[in-house]
Amino acid sequence: MEISALTRSVVKRNHAVISPDGYINSRVPGWDNCTVNVIINEQMGANLCQTLITLTDTGKLTGKTVASQLFFYVISGQCTATVHGGTQTLATGQFVYIPIGNEYLIDQPDAGTQLLTFHKVYEKLDGYDVPSVLFGDAASVAGPMYMGDPALRLQVLLPDDLRFDMAVNIFTYDPGGHLPLVETHIMEHGLIYLQGQGVYMLDKDWYPIKKGDSIWMAPYCQQWFTAMGKEPAVYIYYKNVNRFPTVV
Ligand code: UGY
Ligand code: MN
């Protein structure tokens, strides 16, 4: 039997590893007949919010984006999304980006459908419009190799466009594939593993990581990962991008 006093989760000043064994559900107004786990948010010191929602067959999410834009990604299952008058079915691997100022409805889920959300306060850029609603499918996004290494593939789900101040990417590592350098950068990350396992180095601490785990990396948290095991390791991650880096 597992000892219930043990967990791989850690919450530190500039990073966190959250494994599902520590989840306690939150009740979120407007998000009904579902369980919600708030994995990353500003209480931690983060500038983003990341949640995991598991819907029952009567699950229904309603709301309106105000200051924050909202990205929904279907980790497993299927549901319907209605935003700005447009309705689409979202199956596994599909997503919808909801800019500020839009009402949304997610309903008609298959029981057990799991949705990932990323939320970021939108920073408008003078001279550029707020982006439009965007439906997409990771399966139709190319995955070119990352930094010249065929063991690493990066899919960029949102347009590379200055209207957007956040990116959402899917990173795939073949077993043995690893980041070619220890990244040390101003951008922040939130992520969840969709598949596989490996070892993440965060601020010189080493963590075994597997499917279902989430990680928060604050700006300048040093980061490196290598995939282990028999199948590729895959995570979907948030990154803030495209805005002036300082108020100084
Ligand atoms: O885009 C990135 O910064 C990415 N390579 N970082 C990461 O996967 N930890
Ligand atoms: Mn990075």
List the main descriptive attributes of the protein structure presented here.
binds manganese (II) ion; 248 residues; mainly beta; binds (2S)-amino(carbamoylamino)ethanoic acid
Q: Your description of this structure?
A:
This protein has strands at residues 10-11, 15-18, 26-28, 31-40, 49-64, 68-76, 78-83, 86-91, 94-98, 103-107, 114-121, 134-137, 145-146, 149-156, 166-173, 189-195, 197-202, 205-210, 214-217, 223-228, 233-240. The chain has 248 residues and is mostly beta strands. Strands 3, 4, 5, 6, 7, 8, 9, 10, 11 and 12 form a 10-stranded antiparallel sheet that branches. It starts with 9 loop residues before the first strand and ends in an 8-residue tail after the last strand. It has no helices and 21 strands. A hairpin with an 8-residue loop joins strand 4 and strand 5 (49-64). The model has no long low-confidence stretch (mean pLDDT 98). 0% of the residues lie in helices and 54% in strands. Residues 183, 185, 189, 223 line the site of manganese (II) ion.
Mind sketching the topology for me?
Layout: E1 10-11, E2 15-18, E3 26-28, E4 31-40, E5 49-64, E6 68-76, E7 78-83, E8 86-91, E9 94-98, E10 103-107, E11 114-121, E12 134-137, E13 145-146, E14 149-156, E15 166-173, E16 189-195, E17 197-202, E18 205-210, E19 214-217, E20 223-228, E21 233-240
Antiparallel strand pairs: 1-2, 2-19, 3-4, 4-5, 5-10, 5-11, 6-9, 6-11, 7-8, 7-10, 9-12, 13-14, 14-15, 15-21, 16-19, 16-21, 17-18, 17-20
Bound molecules: (2S)-amino(carbamoylamino)ethanoic acid and manganese (II) ion (MN).
